[in-house]
Amino acid sequence: MTKAQININGPQRVLADVAHNCQIADGLHLLQLNAPEIAAIAHPGQFAMLQCAGGAFLRRPLSIHRLSPDKTLVSFLFAVLGKGTQWLTQTKVGDKIDILGPMGSSFNLLPSSSNILLLAGGLGLAPLVFLADEALSRGICVNLAYGTATNQRYDKQLLPQALHLIEFTDDGSYGKRGLVTECIHGFLNGADQIIACGPLPMYRAMSAQANLKGINVQVSLETRMACGLGVCYGCTINTVSGLQQVCHHGPVFNMEDVIWKEMAPI
C-alpha cells in the first residue's frame, strides 16, 4: 500500500504576522498568519509548531488548516485547551508569532483517485479542509462526513462549496444523529480512498471493521508533542514497522500500520 509522503524540504522558521484571528464557535478559533515561506512548501496533513507567549510555554503543534489562494497566508483551526492556545486567541492583527513548519508527513492522494471519502471527527476537520481544497483542484470528487458532539461546530459556509457534505452530531441537534463512521458502508463501492482525522476511539472502531481491510485508509494522529522534530521521542507509537515518532514519521499513517491496542489516549 502506498505510504504517506514525508516532507523533504525541511521546516522553515518564520516570524509571522497575524492577519486574522477570530472565534468561530464556542471554544473554536481560526488563526491566519502571513507566512509565504511555509505556505509555498506545505502539503495537506502537515502541521506547524507555534511559539506561545514568547517561549513561556512549549510550542503548540497545530495542523495546517488552509492556504490562501496566493499561498501567502496559512490558517490554523484550533480549540482552546490550555494556556498556550488561550494565549493564541488573544493575539491581534499585526502581532508576530514565531512559527516552525511545515512538519511531518502529508496525506497521499493516489493518481488513480477520482472519488474520496473524508471522515472528520470534531477538530479533525482542521487538516481535511486543506486536503479537500487540493483534491478539488485536481478534479477529484470529495465527500466529507463531519461529526461533532453538539451543534457547536465549524460554519459550513466556510467549507469548499464543491464538496458533498454529510453532517453528524452525537446528540442529533444538527444533521444526522450518530457518528461519521456510520457512512463508511455506503461509500465502500464508490470511494477510491478513505482519509480520516479524529479521536482515538474513532480510529479503533474503524480498524475493527472487516470491510476496511485491504482498502487505502489514511489517518492523521493526534498526540502530545514536545519538540516536533523527532528528538525527544515523546510522541512515539508502536507500528508494524516498529517504534515511530508521530511528529516525524507521521502524523499521517496508513491505518493498517498502527498497532491500535497499544495506542494511549491523549
Protein described:
The chain is mostly beta strands. It folds into two domains: 5-104, Translation factors (Elongation Factor Tu (Ef-tu), domain 3), CATH 2.40.30; 106-218, Nucleotide-binding domain of ferredoxin-NADP reductase (FNR) module (Rossmann fold). It has five helices and 18 strands. The protein has helices at residues 36-39, 83-89, 125-137, 184-187, 200-207, and strands at residues 5-6, 12-25, 28-34, 47-50, 60-63, 66-67, 73-79, 96-103, 105-106, 115-121, 141-148, 164-169, 176-177, 193-197, 217-220, 236-239, 242-245, 252-254. It has a seven-stranded antiparallel sheet with strand order 5-4-8-2-3-7-6. β6 (66-67) and β7 (73-79) form a beta hairpin. The protein is globular. Mean pLDDT is 90; it is low at 1-8.
The value of Rg in angstroms is 17 Å
Q: Within the largest sheet, what's the order of strands?
A: 5-4-8-2-3-7-6
Topology pattern, helix = H, strand = E: EEEHEEEEHEEEHEEEHEHEEEE
DSSP, total strands: 18
CATH class of the largest domain: Alpha Beta
SS field, number of helical segments: 5
Tell me the helix content. Answer: 10-25%
Q: For the record, give the distance between the C-alpha atoms at the N and C termini, rounded to a whole number.
A: 28 Å
* The named CATH superfamily of the largest domain: Nucleotide-binding domain of ferredoxin-NADP reductase (FNR) module
Q: Give average pLDDT, whole number.
A: 90
Number of domains: 2
Largest sheet features: 7 strands, antiparallel
